[in-house]
Amino acid sequence: MINIIHVGRERLREAYEIVNKVDQGMNVPEWFVAEPYEEFDFWMNEERGILYLAVDEDENVGAMFFVILPGLHPDNLGYDLNMEEEKLKLCAMMDTAAVLPEFRGHHLQYKMMQHAEGDLRQMGYRYLLCTVHPENVFSRSNVMKQGYQKMLTKEKYGGFLRDIWMKQIIE
User: Fold this and answer.
1) CA-to-CA separations, 58 to 22, 61, 62, in angstroms, rounded
2) CATH of the domain at 82
3) Is 111 a residue whose pLDDT tops 70?
4) Which tens digit of pLDDT belongs to each residue from 58-76?
5) How far apart are CA 31 and CA 19, in angstroms?
6) Which domain holds residue 158?
7) Are 165 and 127 in contact (CB under 8 A)?
8) For the chain, how many structural domains are there in total?
């Protein structure tokens, strides 16, 4: 059995190792843009990053998921959607999901996003935003199953084409 757990900054290096392994093993490198460790650390230091790990019964970590609570920071994807300031404050960015090959097939990206969504709803966030490469059928299918809607396609992350998806979780 695999559990999704919310962890603190003390496990960020461990999570980042998963990001690196997944990044290095991508068949289509454009589908996954690994942020530098310092980016994750910045959000954790600001207490605006939420980190989840997927852990099996032997405490092996097989996946990570990172949420950013950007507020009015320029990285907020809500700016790309021309959201007004009050709505920007209610946005959470479903930022990075990385699953090791040996843990694939357990729907961990879906489960981690669902776990985070429950936490974010309790925290009062209203809009969940994420980006997906237009040809990444796996991630696209995952966000569609969860009720996200494609809002627009544009270049992000230094020129990589991305669809921006949004889900409203509180009316």
Assistant:
1) 21, 9, 11
2) 3.40.630.30
3) yes
4) 999 999 999 999 999 999 9
5) 13
6) 3-168
7) no
8) 1
